[in-house]
Write a structure and sequence with these properties.
Radius of gyration of chain A: 15 Å
Number of strands of chain B: 28
Largest sheet of chain A: 5 strands, mixed
Oligomer: heterodimer
Strand order of the largest sheet of chain A: 2-1-5-3-4
Strand content of chain B: 15-25%
Number of helices of chain A: 5
Order of helices and strands of chain A: EEHEEEHHHH
Strand order of the largest sheet of chain B: 3-5-1-12-9-10-11
Number of helices of chain B: 20
Chain lengths: ~160, ~800
């Protein structure tokens, strides 16, 4: 089946098997390997992307369901000259990542959490990131990073 | 005119942001599965669905006929590919029993996930589809799951061994002392604890890709591994390929925690099949495979006995444990429990000590190192038992510890188990920890809550840990019968333009070695860390190394970097002396500049020496060009980090739910190179240890079926389950290495399980004696409360 969608601002069109998950389409057909696969039960959130501006786990969506959609992956978060956005910067400044495998999903989920909520506090960040697992950081510095980014983004 | 370099203030001890981060934050980082490898074949592994079964027949015909399938192999088909079995590097006793273990099981399967056949296909989807078409006929056999049942030999898993007992390892240096201690004790505590099995669950599943050179003969192995160097040696020996023909690269590696400290069937299969098919062969694990077929951690039944005099002062400590090997030995399975063998008396002075470990096979995934490896188990047993002793003696948990700490003046401390603890001031760290947590105020609040009749019960749990890390003096490893050494290598090169290359034999997978190692070299050279690049995790670039595990990287590998930098600087000093026409002894070096004492105008920057060493136009007679030095550093002793951890919980009497409301950790890891990274390591370890205490368990049914094979069933804590952590620290430099560092990677995972469990027991202490094992689920806590009412 043919799907056409906008990925990180560029329109792409591909033929896909109907069973293809969006995450596999992103990684294999589009070679955007920043989006990671960490589980097979939609538990870990490593594959989180933005679809129509909202965060979704791209392993829960078929590529064909994304036909016509506008999606952003981690590769589309920094500006064209490579400058990281406020969330990415906050993760580095607060040591919010170690091995970096959950990080793309965590950044996407955090970005959407900040955009969707004003007045985030620690409890809201912890609840909001419940669907994204990290095994390295204990979340302490991720929470700090998200609060710092939220404050910078005026949320 | 000479340009003098601006002085750079020391960088050690500062919070330098990680250079690793930008590529990981932008999706540029490349993990093994991200690599684009043209024409690669993909493996799909057919795994046993039974804990124990006879393999009666395997019909591969349907799978072979499936679209995209290139080949399907069983153990018989690949028998000639192996020069040796899957390596087990730790024969802990001369008579240790190990079953034959090859990448594909033949005859019988011994855990759910045991590989029995392998599909080779053109794509991962086609491989996965064909796995389901391999028809294996099994005869399911009774399985052994429980450790005490294993010990009974009611069912013997590997009949050729005649028993499920792999080994019995004993340490009893003072049997008379032990006997006297227990015969004459005023108080004896005897406790039984369970260390449940844990799934390491690194977020990146394992992945391997083997690329043969186009003309044949050489192989590049990309693997999500913690141990590229050890893996290279083992691959060569096992697959029968000269080590010189194998290059192992660990690209970005997404966490390990010990689970990638191993040599796995899939790595051996990819290499052997790349040789057979003369094409790249690769495989990436699914999460459910990771749960079943990547090693698990812990898995012990622990008996610990304390003897104490009338003042509650320890006179003897005796531990007797059964350790779960799983279905087979993996790389260091047998040795993991023994990494705790010397530490069951913890931070407490005792004249007599004995330890015994019995390793048994079960029909479960093999165990091996998981964050802390042996030391969390030891710490848990002694720290919970000390609380039990406090109850028996009738003193506060703080007081029982104070009476028993190894005195500060006795360092270096000759432990009753035969170790030499390098340095410590336990009493001071403890006081700081209690003050930081506000211990007295917490006790007051607890009393108030109890007086109010609240159904929420506040508990304060203390754990004071010590670990031995910095693995390890090679001669000590020899005495433990471990097959490798414990040194680490480093090379430091100052390039013609004064940019510095550090090559390390450590293999980071999230710990930030690039940042920290650059800081160590830059600090010594008085230059900016930005001018130092760190190369690692590629055996062609870093030929010697013993990789990353056991909190060894900084204290052993970082020290090697320090020493190699010192050696390079010594050579630079000789060249500078020659160029400045001064004697070496008359030179000062600071901020990247050599200068002549008493003649401040005679200055030569390191950059000028670097360029001179490259052109070699004017070097001292007989001196070789270039600034480069290497070292392989073997530590003289382990290092012994320690610290006070305090957990505060609220337990709901009606539901059994435990809320961890505060967690305080005051660690002493010696000197801290980068406090930002140190704190991050503590946070991560705490989350894993708290996960063990409250949530995580690899649950098997009586047939050996793993019931928690997905992240929906196995409860890795999320942000919502954890509090922010309150950290402080003390600094007792280690005399073991010139950096004075100890190690911090495992501390949180070692200290936190007993802190949390002691807090739960403390919260409910007014109900009576609480018997509870990890994980303290609401159901278990509720039942423990009911048991006191029965």
């Amino acid at each position: 089946m043919k799907v056409t969608l906008t990925v990180n601002g560029k329109q792409v069109s591909r033929d896909v098997e109907p069973r293809t998950l969006l995450v596999h389409f992103i990684r294999e057909d589009l070679s955007l390997t920043g989006t990671n696969v960490g589980c097979d039960t939609s538990s870990c959130g490593a594959c989180t992307i933005l679809m129509g501006g909202e965060s979704v786990k791209s392993c829960t969506v078929l590529a064909v369901q994304a036909d016509g959609a506008e999606i952003t992956t981690i590769e589309g978060m920094a500006s064209a000259d490579g400058t990281m956005n406020a969330v990415q910067r906050a993760f580095q400044e607060n040591h919010g990542l170690q091995c970096g495998y959950c990080t793309p999903g965590m950044v996407m989920a955090s970005y959407s959490l900040i955009k969707e909520n004003s007045n985030l506090d620690e409890a809201a960040v912890r609840e909001g990131l419940e669907g994204n697992l990290c095994r390295c950081t204990g979340y302490h510095n991720i929470v700090k990073a998200v609060l710092a980014a939220a404050s910078e983004m005026g949320a | 005119m000479t340009t003098v370099q601006d002085a750079v203030p020391g960088v050690i001890g500062t919070r330098v942001l990680r250079r690793e981060d930008p590529e990981l934050l932008t999706g540029e980082g490349r993990f093994t599965d991200d690599l684009k490898i043209p024409a690669a074949l993909w493996l799909g592994v057919v795994r046993s669905p039974f804990g124990r079964a006879k393999i009666l027949s395997i019909d591969t015909s349907a799978a072979k006929a499936a679209p995209g399938v290139v080949a399907v192999y069983t153990a018989t088909d690949l028998q000639s590919e192996w020069a040796g079995p899957i390596p087990s590097a730790w024969q802990v006793t001369p008579d240790m029993k190990s079953p034959a273990h090859y990448p594909l099981a033949s005859g019988s399967a011994n855990y759910v996930g045991d590989p029995v056949a392998v599909v080779v296909a053109n794509s991962p989807k086609e491989a996965a589809d064909a796995v389901g078409m391999v028809d294996v006929e099994y005869e399911q056999l009774p399985a052994v799951v429980d450790l005490e049942d294993a010990l009974s030999d009611r069912v013997v898993i590997h009949s050729e061994l005649g028993t499920n007992v792999s080994y019995v390892w004993e340490l009893n240096p003072n049997p008379d002392g032990i006997k006297t201690a227990f015969d004459n004790a005023a108080y004896v505590v005897k406790e039984r604890y369970i260390q449940q099995r844990l799934i390491p669950a690194a977020m990146e599943p394992r992945s391997v890709a083997v690329v043969p050179s186009p003309m044949g003969g050489d192989y590049t192995v990309y693997s999500a591994t913690q141990i590229p160097h050890i893996l290279k040696v083992m691959l060569g020996l096992t697959v029968g390929i000269s080590e010189s023909k194998i290059r192992v690269i660990a690209p970005a590696v997404g966490g390990g925690f010990g689970s990638k400290l191993d040599v796995y069937p899939e790595e051996l299969l990819c290499l052997a099949l790349a040789r057979k098919h003369r094409l790249p062969v690769r495989w990436t694990e699914e999460r459910s495979e990771n749960s079943q077929a990547t090693i698990q951690g812990r898995g012990q039944v622990q008996w610990i006995e304390l003897a104490a005099d009338a003042n509650g002062k320890l006179t003897g400590v005796r531990a007797d444990i059964i350790a779960d090997m799983g279905g087979y030995q993996q790389l260091i399975t047998a040795g993991v429990p023994l990494l705790g063998a010397f530490l069951y008396h913890g931070v407490y002075d005792t004249p007599a000590y004995a330890f015994k470990c019995t390793g048994v096979y079960t029909n479960k995934t093999p165990t091996d190192a998981y964050r802390g490896a042996g030391r969390p188990e030891a710490t848990y047993a002694i720290e919970r038992a000390m609380d039990a002793l406090a109850v028996k003696v009738g003193v506060d948990t703080v007081e029982i510890r104070r009476r028993n700490f190894i005195p500060t003046e006795s360092f270096p401390y000759n432990s009753p188990a035969g170790l030499v603890f390098d340095s410590g001031d336990y009493a001071a760290n403890f006081t700081q920890g209690l003050n930081f947590a506000g211990y007295d105020a917490l006790r007051k609040k607890q009393a108030e809550m109890r007086a109010s009749g609240s159904k929420k019960h506040l508990g304060i749990g203390i754990s004071f840990f010590v670990e031995m890390c910095g693995l390890a003096p090679s001669r000590v490893l020899a005495s433990l019968n471990y097959s490798a050494g414990g040194w680490e290598s480093a090379t430091v090169r100052i390039l013609p333009t004064c940019k510095v290359q550090v090559v390390t034999g450590t293999a980071p997978h999230g710990q930030g070695h690039e940042t920290s190692w650059a800081m160590i070299a830059a600090d010594k050279l008085g230059i900016s860390p930005d001018d130092v690049e760190v190369l690692h995790s590629d055996t062609a670039i870093s030929p010697f190394g013993l990789d990353t595990y056991g909190s060894r990287s900084l204290s052993v590998g970082g020290t090697a970097v320090y020493i190699a930098t010192e050696r390079v600087l010594d050579k630079a000093r000789k060249i500078a002396a020659h160029l400045l026409e001064a004697s070496e002894e008359d030179l000062d070096y600071a901020g990247g500049n050599f200068s002549v004492k008493g003649s401040p105008e005679k200055v030569l920057p390191l950059a000028a020496v670097a360029f001179e060493s490259f052109t070699a136009h004017n070097l001292p007679d007989g001196m070789e060009p270039n600034l480069e030095a290497s070292t392989s550093w073997d530590p003289p002793n382990f290092t012994f980090p320690y610290g006070t951890h305090i957990a505060v919980v609220e337990v709901d009497e009606d539901t059994g739910k435990v809320d961890l409301v505060r967690y305080v950790a005051v660690d002493d890891c010696g000197n801290r190179i980068n406090p930002l990274i140190v704190e991050g390591q503590v946070h991560g370890g705490l989350a894993q240890g708290i996960g063990q205490a409250l949530f995580e368990e690899a649950v098997y049914d009586e047939t050996g079926n793993l019931l928690t094979a997905t992240l929906a069933d196995y409860l890795v804590p999320s942000a919502a389950e954890l509090p922010s952590f309150e950290l402080d620290h003390t600094v007792t430099p280690s005399p073991t290495n010139p950096l004075g560092v100890k190690g911090i990677g495992e501390a949180g995972a070692i200290a936190s399980p007993p802190a949390v469990m002691n807090a739960i027991v403390d919260a409910l202490s007014h109900f009576g004696k609480i018997n509870i094992d990890m994980p303290a689920s609401p159901e278990k806590v509720w039942k423990a409360i009911q048991a006191t009412k029965a």
